[in-house]
Amino acid sequence: MKNTFYKWWKQKPSRFRKPLVFVLGLLLLIVSPIIGSVPGPGGIALFLLSIAILASEFDWAEELKAFFLHTVPKEIKNRWHPTPRWAICFDITSFALLIGALGAVTQGWWALMLSLGMGGITLFIFNRDRLTRLKKLLTKK
User: 55 near 61, Cβ under 8 Å?
Assistant: First the structure.
């Protein structure tokens, strides 16, 4: 499906593709800080999506995409080493956000549920070493 759409899209004339991609990517890029002001990771995801869309047609955006997807994570990994206390803080915060999302559902506040839920899920995924840390904790006793 993806390859079929990609081939179909690349068969379209460049004079049609580039302006459409530019307008869509720029629109998402402009909207990303607005969405970013709402709790949750939506602004970051929208920003990266806009860069990926722009990278489909523009070389400068491809270099920017490579920077954000390869260089930035490496630098963060090299400079920041989370301690077990940080990991526990991430777990507690993600659990609290997910409980808040469940509470928002019971009240019918779907926007708040979506915002808190996405924040909680993101923190939960970010804390990758959870299972190995839990296994170490359980085998110590």
Answer: yes
Q: pLDDT by residue (tens digit) across 12-71?
A: 888 888 999 999 999 999 998 888 877 767 788 888 889 989 998 898 999 988 888 888
- DSSP secondary structure string for all residues of 25-72: HHHHHHHHHHHHTSSSSHHHHHHHHHHHHHHTT-HHHHHHHHIIIIIH
Max Cα–Cα distance, the chain, nearest Å: 67
DSSP 8-class letter at 12 = S
Tokens of 18: 């580039």
Instruction: Check: CB of residue 87 under 8 Å from CB of residue 129.
Output: yes
The answer to whether residues 22 and 54 touch, using CB atoms and an 8 Å cutoff, is: yes
Residue positions counted in the chain: 141
Helix (H) / strand (E) containing 81: none
Distance CA 54, CA 60 (A): 9
Please tell me the distance from the alpha carbon of residue 104 to that of residue 110, in angstroms, as a whole number. 7
